[in-house]
Design goal:
4-stranded mixed sheet; mainly beta; Hypothetical Protein Aq_1857, Chain: A; 3-stranded mixed sheet
């Protein structure tokens, strides 16, 4: 018997759902969603990545929310646990914003972050 999923890696705000929907619908090729990951880079050490997805990769954590799909790169899961993904439009910029409880610090320009792996004990289910 398969184990039931206990929690979702990340959640999306209404604005993020709408922007993901727009990106997928307006893509110049057939895509099924967006892949979220992290990579080394930037002055704080890590950067969030987003790519169009034509098909899931083995090990992807798939999040389906209000008709859109996000694919979380397996190597990023421990760094993204508990994250809320939003989309903001301000006077000077627009883009996805990650409210990540695993963020230790961020650079001044906001383009890179320092992350630590999530404390899995905070996600543990109580024993019954």
């Amino acid at each position: 018997m398969a184990a039931a999923r206990k929690f979702q890696v990340l959640t999306l705000t209404d604005a993020a759902v709408e922007r993901v929907r727009e990106l997928v619908e307006d893509a110049d090729r057939d895509v099924v969603g967006l892949r979220v990951g992290i990579k080394k880079g930037g002055c704080a050490g890590m950067e969030y990545t987003m790519d169009m997805v034509e098909e899931a990769k083995p090990g992807d954590d798939v999040i389906e929310d209000r008709g859109v799909r996000l694919f979380v790169d397996p190597s990023a899961v421990l760094f993204l646990l508990g994250t809320e993904m939003d989309f903001e439009v301000t006077k000077f910029r627009s883009g996805f914003v990650f409210k990540n409880p695993n963020e230790v610090s961020a650079c001044g320009c906001g383009e890179s972050v320092s992350l630590q792996a999530a404390d899995l004990s905070s996600f543990a289910q109580p024993q019954t």
